[in-house]
Write a structure and sequence with these properties.
278 residues, mainly beta
């Protein structure tokens, strides 16, 4: 009898250890993208309200998953046993709990928000053209300095575009003039254009700011700038913090603003050297 109890005890220990080993083999539950197989590492997911659905694969755990959605009025989901699809319903934040019968669980926080493009201004330069502008310390130098100083945003400020449509063509623009949190707001329309000389693509952004003055801006956004603007014949550039290498820039034509004062001026641009923030 004692020997039987002894073997039963050994068998029980073996079963417990086997169960724990199997459970450990499954590992924690996590999600990977169904398209690029990148794992969500911070437990957070941001979805555009214009998305038709973000698809993921559930990994880890013991495989028999239950899914609990906190608020289906913000995000709905579909799960076919293989692919988990999150479908945005409205702007807001919610969470989804994925669990298995072995006690493993994973919570994903989901934010449905309008897509944004956030640019930090690294430096500002100016570019002018005109055969009759005096060089050196004359009109040209004064004009270059004036154009940079008159910019609505200075180094350290930001341009934040928030899109209100699926094509990313319309929305609102917040201009943060400097490091502080204050900003000016306006509406913009964005259109794909090409330069006449080289055919280089850029985004033309027409903006009308709020307020009594209804100030308007026409920006030309070029992505992937690799060096500061170079000087060509009859063209000069200056940079308030020295030459900067950034990943994109905006050109704003300001000829009309200064031509009355500088009669020899034919073209003038204000150039915002930017870094696109995540």
């Amino acid at each position: 009898m004692k020997r039987t109890h002894f073997f039963h005890g050994i068998l029980l220990i073996v079963l417990i250890l086997s169960f724990m080993a199997c459970k450990d083999d499954h590992g924690p539950i996590y999600l990977v993208s169904a398209t690029d197989h990148q794992q969500i590492t911070d437990g957070k997911l941001e979805i555009s309200p214009f998305s038709k659905g973000e698809k993921f694969l559930i990994r880890g755990g013991e495989g028999n998953y239950t899914i609990k959605n906190e608020n289906k009025e913000i995000v709905d989901y579909r799960y076919d046993g293989d692919t988990l699809t999150f479908i945005p319903v409205s702007i807001g934040e919610t969470s989804t709990l994925i669990a298995d019968r072995s006690g493993n669980s994973y919570t994903l926080t989901i934010l449905v928000n309008n897509p944004q493009s956030n640019y930090r201004v690294e430096s500002i330069s100016a570019e002018v053209e005109g055969d009759n502008l005096t060089k050196g310390e004359g009109e040209e130098a004064e004009l270059l300095a004036r154009i940079a100083e008159d910019a609505p945003v200075q180094s350290g400020g930001r341009l934040l575009f928030t899109y209100s449509d699926a094509s990313l063509s319309y929305g609102d623009l917040k201009i943060f003039p400097n490091y502080t949190g204050s900003y000016q707001i306006g509406l913009f329309e964005r259109t794909l254009k090409y330069t006449e000389d080289t055919g280089e693509p850029y985004q033309q952004i027409q903006t009308e700011m709020a307020g009594s003055t209804k100030r308007t801006y026409t920006f030309m956004l070029f992505e992937n700038e690799t060096s500061s603007t170079q000087t060509t014949d009859n063209t000069s550039s200056t940079n308030e913090e020295g030459a900067a290498t950034t990943n994109c820039f905006i050109k704003e034509e300001v000829t009309a603003q200064y031509k009355g004062e500088f009669s020899g001026l034919t073209k003038a641009y204000r150039i915002y050297h930017l870094t696109k923030l995540p």
